[in-house]
Amino acid sequence: MKKRYWLAAALAAIVVCWVVLRVTGVIQFYKVSTTSNEPTLRIGKYFFAGRWAKPKRFDFVLYMGKAPGDETKTKWIHRLCGLPGDTLEIRGGILYINGNSPDSSLSLARMYCVSSAKARTLMTKHHLAYATVSYETDVFNLGWDSSFVILDQQLAAREGLPHFTTVPAGRPEKDIVRSFGKPWNRDNFGPVVVPPHEFFVLGDSRSNAYDSRYHGFVADTDVVATVLDKR
Prior knowledge:
The chain is about 25% helix and about 30% strand. By secondary structure, the protein is of the alpha+beta class. The chain has a domain at about 110-160. The strands form three sheets. It has a seven-stranded antiparallel β-sheet with strand order 1-2-12-3-4-10-11. Strands 6-5-9 form a three-stranded antiparallel β-sheet, with no helix packed on it. A hairpin with a 2-residue loop joins strand 5 (about 85-90) and strand 6. It starts with a helix and ends with a strand. About 30% of the residues are buried.
């Protein structure tokens, strides 16, 4: 009887602690709603995030940011890549931090140009949730039978696909120009130095993320939680 009492008390304490943590926002449980961090954070999956954990380089952070054309801040999640004082540059789609690239150690998704038939095969074979069949055709000069797919770069390597497709240098993207005043695009960006008390964040799906390349640096005061666990 005594054992049952202590077990019930322990379970009640756990429930109370969980409720308090959730209500106070110290720990939160979230569902991934976008593809901007695939393949690491896949759409529909759940993860925990906590307010007490100080974010470190390459952690995923939740922060308050603005969507294109919207002055209202909403909650976003991306990987923290640049810390105050870092020099960041993207050349040919590859990220460099203080002259070194971390990309080979990260799980990233890239955009690949393939035939339309190959795109359909890949989507069926790997149950891909998304693909883009047309993007800036004037930039890439696609033939009528070409398509773009966004794939995990490790999966793409196993499929024997060629190097991922990038936006050529000299083709500025308006949102990037608006934020940084430079004729850059998502694949040819910088160099920039991260200011004090700010961060630079990137989505793991590098061709499909509206991140610091577009909306600018993230103030450390706008970071609301650090991802603790991914399911």
